[in-house]
Amino acid sequence: MESACPIIRPLSASDAAAYVSLRLCAIDEDPASFLSTREEEEKRSIDEIEARIGATANQVVLGAFAGETLVAVAGLRRYPLRPVQQKGFLWGLFVAHPHRRNGIARRLIAAAVDQARAMGLTQIALNTGRENASAIALYRSAGFEAVEDEPSDDAIDDDTDREVEMVLRLD
Fold it and tell me: Where does the N-acetyltransferase domain lie (predicted)?
């Protein structure tokens, strides 16, 4: 691990291979935290990945780079429907294990909040596992508040998941 403070910037098409590698690492480490499986992710073409991570007026995927290595990511997406277009959703926050506990996640969240404000958003929502106390503490320290526990009726492999929805109001 490099001791220098990682650079945070929006990902571009040239970062697609690094993004795929980091996302597969994240899925391997904690598959229950992702809606897609490793197998589904491996089937995505590089064109799909480039489109997925490319910045638009409605989304950005931020990456933290230690030197040339992508070590963390977080996505921010505006809700697409007109009645809620002032709201965004933070997704896919992941920091590679050797780079944790160095403030990278906190810096990615701050960068996402700055981006949300630049996009004119008034609120950012996210979901995290109810049992993920460290993630909940991190989000609370960044100003997010739990708004509800969300029981899931969908069981995957006979395992029901419970999530906490959290919101940060920007106005």
Answer: 6-171
DSSP-assigned letters across all residues of 95-127: E-GGGTTSSHHHHHHHHHHHHHHHTT-SEEEEE
- The torsion angle over the Cα atoms of residues 43, 9, 98 and 34, rounded to 10 degrees, is -40
Neighbouring residues of 91: CB distance < 8 A, sequence distance ≥ 6: 74, 75, 76, 77, 126
Model confidence, pTM: 0.85
What is the total residue count of the chain?
A: 171
Domain ranges of the chain: 7-169
Q: H/E element holding 39?
A: helix 38-42
Q: Which fold has domain 7-169?
A: Aminopeptidase (3.40.630)
Q: Is 155 exposed, middle or buried (0-12, 13-18, 19+ CB in 10 A)?
A: exposed
Tens-digit pLDDT profile for residues 88-117: 999 999 999 889 999 999 999 999 999 999
The Cα–Cα gap between 11 and 6 comes to 14
Of 106, 103, 119, whose CA–CA distance to 170 is shortest?
Answer: 119
- Residue 133 near residue 166 (C-beta atoms within 8 A): no
The tens digit of pLDDT for each residue in 24-49 reads 988 888 887 777 888 888 889 999 99
Token representation of residue 46: 């590089």
